[in-house]
Amino acid sequence: MLQKLENAYLAILRFVTLLVAGALLIAAVVMAINSLRGGANEPEQAKLEPKVSAEQILQAISPEAPPNKDAAKKEPETADPLAHDYQRTAKAISRFIDKTHPGLGPLDQDSLLGALHSRSEALKKPEHAPAFVKGMADTMEKLFAAPAAAKAVKAQDPFDFINGALDHYTEQFENQADAIEVKNAERIANYQQEQADSAKNLYFAAACFGAFLLIVFQSIIIRIERNLRCLERLPKPAEEEKREGKNLSPAASQA
Fold first, then answer.
1. Structural domain of residue 73, as residue ranges?
2. What's the half-sphere exposure (Cβ side, CA atoms, 13 Å) at 66?
3. How far is CA 36 from CA 27, 30, 86, 183, 201, in A?
4. pLDDT (tens digit per residue) in 60-77
5. Model's pTM, two decimal places?
6. Do residue 104 and residue 10 come from a single domain?
7. Is residue 48 part of a domain?
8. Could you identify which of 33, 54, 88, 218 might form a hypothetical disulfide with 137, taking C-beta atoms 3.0 to 4.6 angstroms apart as the criterion?
9. Are the C-beta atoms of 29 and 124 separated by less than 8 Å?
10. Which residues contact 60 (CB under 8 A, 6 or more apart)?
């Protein structure tokens, strides 16, 4: 009866051991795969490319919407790698004044370039200056060459119109730059979270695999102990019984 109970207990233990070991092994494999997938590549940073159209600026600087005149004044740098883009903007403004108000020109190019420099130097982040200056040149060339701009400037002072256009472009650029900074920060935060999750999955996979090995090792020990117990209960061979009988016969004769 005791032997039957022991056999039933070992059978149940074997089943539970196989079930738990299999589950641990599957979990270890799945967690290891997830740890390799998560955060494999760093996120690509969004590039700052200003998207301010001439139509947006015309709508913003119409007579119904007075321009903002809070631009800071600073001395321009003597040497600037962006000089070509500054000159593009200055020439676009000069051509616009010559076309719409010939009596006000020609404009002083040094003062005009200094005003443009002051706008880029007043940015929240100096590293955005190259994108700002190039975008300003592209936008202002399109804006001041448009017939709609020549028509709109008749309703207000030409310099207010030009400053309003530059103010609106600067405001839109800063808003877009802030949005891209937030987007990049979210990407970095998500990447760092993925890296942390991958590390957790790897640790969990190692723990599951270690538990799997421990259960397998315990199962092997139980199997070995059970086999040794069965060997002890096996009947002795006939030759060994004969030897034991011979060893006992001299003792019996002496008795």
1. 54-190
2. 3
3. 14, 10, 49, 25, 9
4. 666 554 444 444 444 444
5. 0.56
6. no
7. no
8. 88
9. no
10. 164, 168
* DSSP conformational letter for 68: P
Judge if 177 and 205 occupy the same domain: no
What distance in Å separates the CA atoms of residue 78 and residue 114, rounded to the nearest whole number? 10
Q: Could you give the number of structural domains in the chain? A: 2
pLDDT digits (tens, 9 = 90+) for 119-154: 999 998 888 999 999 999 999 999 999 999 888 888
49 occurs within a structural domain:
no
- Other Cβ atoms less than 10 A from the Cβ of 230: the count is 9
Are both 123 and 97 inside the same structural domain?
yes
DSSP per-residue letters across 208-250: HHHHHHHHHHHHHHHHHHHHHHHHHTSPPPHHHHHHHHHHHHH
In sequence order, the 6+-apart residues with CB closer than 8 A to the CB of 132 are 50, 119, 120, 123, 170, 173
What's the one-letter identity of residue 9? Y
